[in-house]
Amino acid sequence: MSATDALPDAAPTDPAERTDPATPRQGLGGAFAAQLTGAGLANLGDGLLGTLVPLIALGLTTSPAQISLLSAAVWLPWLLLGLAAGALIDRVDQRRAQVVALSVRAGLLAGAAGLAAADLLSMPLLIALALTYGATEVVADLGATSIVPDLVRRDQLAAANGRIIAVQQVTNGFLGAPLAGALIVVGAGIGLGSAAALAALAAVVLLVGLRGSFRPRSAQPAAFAGDGTTTSSGSRSGTALRRALGEVRDGLAYLWRHPVVRPMAITASVLNFASTGYFAVFILWVVGPTSHVGLTESQFPLLMLGFAVGAIGGSFLAPVVTRWLGEIQTMVMTLTASSALMLVLISLDHGFAMASVLAVTGVMNAIGNVTSMALRQRIVPRDLLGRVGGASRTLSYGLMPLGAIAGGLVAEQWGLVATFVGTGVVSLLACGYLALTARPSMVTDAERDRALRSA
Description:
The protein is an all-alpha fold.
């Protein structure tokens, strides 16, 4: 009997806490289906923009440093807003937070589509678009991740996260990238307008498909002091600010003290730093008549399909591999393989061979991501999940703009190969750190501590 079976949580009516072994084949439910559909539509827009915007930028500049600024701008909001957004998500209705973020995104993209139709887009405007889009991503992503334990049982988390990763890859890479390749021919305004429509539709699906309140039970209304007494407006705002700052500190402190979450967050941060630097300039390696590979703009999305196809398969394989190897071993082995394949990729110059390597990379990457996501959701207390997620993503996503800038500057100074080799080596070192600092026994201890906190 595991520690979580021996020490059940205090709220067995929470779908995230129920673990009825008699119904292992039970579906994930209509509420999760609505969340998954909304996430799929939002990620289709992400995939469309993720390919469309760099292709638009190629018509404006060929500078690695300027191209890399687009990736930096998308991820910079995680560094600036991640902690505060994590505290916010632990205090508000997580369904409503997603709806508001997606609605703002739809308006932003509609405005950008108008600028594109008027032929007024420029690199500064594209960078500003990426920056503001990234701000909506912070709130929407944290809300989407934090709401999952309220929609499924704890023993369904791996399956639920596998479905999420699969849908993300199908829509983001498998559908979004080719769609961008087609729409870039029609016009940037049509592409940006399509992304705006997808964001609006995702907001509608969540608004209609998810019913009820999804505010964490531990969240205290801002209008009351900690002892439950009503405060004056000035005292109320001061109390709310102190409480919010305290919640941010709680998330950071929990992450830093946790023997499993800390090495996972540090490893993810370094891997994201390296991979963003790598792929921020990868388009210059493969697209254009003077590039190493020589693909056309319409062929590039087809190349990246390899990664998406692999990630789809890996998302469904993750629960099987995790049961076979264990969670820590699975993360170490798959992330190490994914990092090594980054170095293999640049030794190739044929599109089909590169797509095949990207497919295997996608398998390894998806298995590692699904495993780490499910593990964090399982061992972090529900009332801290948003804050710990915000703190973790502030570190892991916050380093991504720095990685993009570093990759662009290194490529500008010493060439693209220097960026690719350097980021590959850094990734392998990060995987070695995870192997040395995380142990399976730590997961068992973390589950016991979570159960004791919830009892």
